[in-house]
Design the sequence.
């Protein structure tokens, strides 16, 4: 009969093929003689008998159920396996690792904002971390009626209450509706505390909650970008003025060199504008000299030396104002 000794033995284990499962209930309730319990890292194994917790095993390893597990069970210490007497018990595997879950609001949340009767419609996105914190509460509230409980189940419960929590925490602190990202950490901290209180009713704790971003309507986003661009132009003009003053004050230093470059650039632009303005004045295209503002061109004074020969008849001149031959005015 020795060859049939362990033919009905089974492995009580959870392969954890789905990493998002918080607990898994072993399906086969009949534990045969010679069966072994395998606990992997990040798992706890809980033996249930008639709905009551008989023992909790937290150390990972490979155990012989008859010799290493049953002696530690509360009411089954003297259980003896027979050929047709398997142990009818449930084994619940708990995922003890902390799990990261991404979340996002299903619909836009209308947050009250001045000048917007319907409120400011925003969306939010982020992550939260959760883990099993109380075996007894988890078994009482969930394990008795479900085979598994996943992070998607946790996420569904959280999303159901997230809209109200976001509205409450944003409105409670009086945050700037157009700059919620600056207060995201404080808002998330408040929401984390509320969610943790709610989920601990199921034996699950929320160990972290973050808001990665707030999303505004497209029209609001474009207005923000335009306002930012206008602010940038104003800042550049202010910086230029400060750099000019800094260049005058520091002169030869490194900072003075940068500021001097800025001043030189501005002076070059000013000279270029002046040159263009002069070119646009009448007579500039013909190469005629332009009078400076506030000055008058002086006429040529008489008494200068005249030509040696008359330009009209070619007669040599004698220094007189008029040609002695044809009477042409010489100067």
Sequence:
């Amino acid at each position: 009969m020795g060859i049939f000794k362990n033919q009905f033995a089974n492995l009580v284990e959870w392969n954890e093929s789905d990493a998002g499962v918080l607990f898994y209930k072993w399906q086969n309730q009949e534990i045969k003689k010679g069966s072994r319990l395998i606990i992997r890292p990040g798992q706890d194994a809980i033996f249930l008998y008639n709905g009551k917790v008989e023992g909790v095993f937290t150390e990972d390893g490979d155990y012989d159920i008859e010799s290493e597990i049953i002696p530690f069970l509360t009411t089954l210490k003297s259980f003896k396996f027979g050929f047709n007497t398997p142990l009818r018990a449930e084994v619940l595997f708990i995922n003890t690792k902390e799990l990261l879950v991404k979340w996002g609001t299903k619909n836009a949340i209308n947050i009250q904002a001045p000048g917007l009767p319907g409120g400011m419609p925003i969306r939010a996105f982020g992550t939260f971390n959760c883990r099993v914190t109380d075996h007894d509460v988890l078994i009482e509230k969930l394990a008795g009626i479900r085979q598994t409980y996943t992070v998607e189940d946790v996420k569904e419960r959280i999303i159901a209450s997230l809209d109200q929590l976001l509205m409450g925490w944003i409105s409670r602190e009086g945050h700037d509706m157009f700059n919620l990202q600056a207060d995201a950490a404080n808002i998330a901290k408040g929401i984390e505390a509320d969610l943790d209180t709610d989920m601990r009713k199921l034996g699950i704790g929320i160990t972290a909650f973050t808001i990665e971003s707030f999303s505004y309507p497209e029209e609001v986003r474009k207005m923000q970008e335009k306002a930012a661009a206008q602010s940038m132009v104003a800042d550049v003009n202010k910086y230029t003025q400060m750099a000019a003053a800094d260049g005058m004050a520091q002169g030869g230093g490194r900072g003075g060199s940068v500021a001097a470059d800025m001043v030189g650039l501005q002076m070059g632009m000013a000279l270029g504008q002046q040159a263009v303005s002069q070119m646009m004045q009448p007579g500039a295209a013909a190469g005629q000299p332009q009078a400076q503002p506030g000055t008058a061109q002086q006429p040529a004074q008489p008494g200068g030396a005249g030509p040696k020969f008359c330009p009209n008849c070619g007669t040599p001149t004698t220094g007189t104002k008029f040609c002695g031959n044809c009477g042409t005015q010489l100067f």
